[in-house]
Design goal:
Blueprint (H helix, E strand, L loop, with lengths): L4 H19 L9 E5 L4 E5 L13 E5 L15 H10 L5 E5 L2 H9 L5 E5 L16 E7 L5 H14 L5 E4 L3 E6 L2 H25 L1
Parallel strand pairs: 6-7
Antiparallel strand pairs: 1-2, 1-4, 2-3, 4-8, 5-6, 7-8
């Protein structure tokens, strides 16, 4: 394990986020993956297969900006390339959180062939960085679930170029990715998305 004050701070932020997200039921079993920026060349990332409600510093490893582990024998998440794509695109990205909540998973499956979920006219939309009014329309891209992370990372990069102002995306039947300049901002984005997803699920239930 890399033993520096910066690593300790970022790893502890990741572990604290994991406990919170697990307590809300948004990362069941060993699902999800989290990361934080250490510097311009390195990221701290959850190791593969770790329980996110029980993370310690030993469960966090360091990868380079290509997603390669810098510690022998450590295996990063299979979705590391999605994290590095986000850090590459957003120069101020400080953290990325990926969760597997029921609402995010079900909504993405209900969308069928649609490639986005549209969220509009909710006051909580102002929780996302840069949004100053509830009248903004938040378009959440959706990607088909796949095990081909190289292709998914390329598709994500293309979508980011077309829609640079998004705050998250969904993988259908899988879960949510969101990010922010800090871990605190990223956690706020997660909470906002989950509230909005719950509202959307309830609207579908009462209007069907």
């Amino acid at each position: 394990m890399i033993d520096t004050p910066t690593f300790h701070r970022v790893a502890d932020e990741i572990a604290d986020a994991g406990r919170f997200l697990y307590s809300r039921g948004w990362v069941p079993a060993t699902s999800g993956n989290f990361s934080g920026r250490l510097d311009d060349a390195r990221l701290a990332l959850t190791a593969s297969g770790r329980h996110k409600g029980e993370l310690t510093r030993d469960d966090i490893l360091v990868v380079d900006r290509a997603g390669e582990p810098l510690e022998a024998g450590r295996k990063p998440s299979a979705e590391t390339l999605l994290h590095t794509t986000l850090y590459d695109f957003y120069a101020d990205c400080g953290a990325v959180l990926h969760t597997h909540s029921v609402n995010a998973t079900v909504l993405s499956k209900l969308a069928g062939d649609s490639d986005e979920l549209v969220l509009e006219d909710y006051e909580v939309l102002k929780a996302f960085h840069g949004n100053t009014t509830h009248t903004v329309v938040e378009r959440v891209p959706m990607f088909p679930n796949t095990q081909d992370m190289n292709q998914l990372a390329r598709d994500l990069a293309d979508r980011l170029k077309a829609q640079p102002d998004i705050h998250g995306f969904l993988i259908q039947g899988h879960g949510l990715y969101t990010w922010g300049r800090t871990m605190a901002e990223t956690r706020r984005h997660i909470e906002a998305f989950e509230f909005l997803f719950e509202c959307e699920m309830e609207m579908r239930r009462i209007t069907r």
